[in-house]
Design a protein that fits this description.
This protein is an alpha+beta fold. Helices cover 33% and strands 24% of the residues. The protein has one domain (3-106). A 4-stranded mixed β-sheet has the order 3-1-2-4.
Length: 108
Amino acid sequence: MDVQDKMTEIALQAQRSELGINEGTSLPIMEAFYTLQGEGAYQGQAAYFIRLGGCDVGCVWCDVKDSWDALAHPVKSIDQILEEALAEIKTFTGLASGKSAAEKILLQ
C-alpha cells in the first residue's frame, strides 16, 4: 500500500467513525425489503432482507458490487434498522453483507 492509499484509508476510517459505523451504533444500509426467503432451511418463508453497504474483499463473483462502498449508502442507527424491520414483518430477518462487514458485526 502506497502513501496515497494509506491516506485515503485513514480518511475513510475517519468518515466511518464520524458516522458511527466503526462503533457498531449504526450501519450503512444498501437496501432493505420484504420478500420470501429463496434458499436454505427457511426457503419460501416470509423474510425482511437487509443488505449492508461496505465490503473490502471485492470478490469477482459478487452480484452486488454497488454495495462495496459503505459511504455510498445511508447510515442508520441499529434502533432505526430494527424498528423498520419489525414494522414490516415479525418472523425472520435475513442479513447480508460483505465478508469484512459481517465479521465486524458478529464479533461485537
